[in-house]
Amino acid sequence: MALAAGVIGELLITAGVVLGLFVVYSLWWTNVVADRVAAKKGDRVRDHWAHDDTPGRDFDAKDGIGFLHVPAMGRKFQVLIVKGTDAEELNKGVAGYYTKPVKAALPWAGHGNFTLAAHRDGHGAKFHKLNRLDKGDVAVVETKDEWYVYKVFNTLPQTSKYNVGAIEAIPKGSGRTKAGRYLTLTTCTPVYTSRYRLIVWAELIRTEKVDPERTLPPELR
Known about the structure:
The chain has 2 helices and 8 strands. It is α+β, with helices and mostly antiparallel strands. The protein has an 8-stranded mixed barrel with strand order 1-2-3-4-7-8-6-5. The chain is globular and about 75 Å long. The active site is at residues 119, 188.
């Protein structure tokens, strides 16, 4: 009996250590790796911008189309925006724009919904603080040639991950009923789970041309 109890105890300790290491890997090391990958991809995008005269709307940047800046999530917060929301993309520490089940409208479109997703925890956890956003907060999308400034007008703290209406061209549940130029940010909730989705809706309030020095717009200074 004593021998069996000792073996079981050792197995439980080993299991505890393994689980602890898994948590460290999931919540810390994957962030480190993803941030490194995203930083390299972001540097390549900015390098392309600096050495390519192609207009931003026609620019073919396989590493990303721009950056999202959200002061409410940190004074210098920015995340690279890429195409697609599959785990293969989001695990690289980026925000991806939806291609399915509803295709996102890119910022320069005359109307539509620029819909983005990013991880809440692990793999860069770029939207970990998305719950901090509230009505009136700003989000700025930086592209090669233009700054797109959006203002948050509504949030949905929790909804089903199957709520496709939240990312439609006229987002259902947002309070808007007419076509506009919207930005929708989505991530998992509650923290450390993927059971539900947290939604933030914003609308375009102005645009600003990027100058040669890439001077930040007033909202980011």
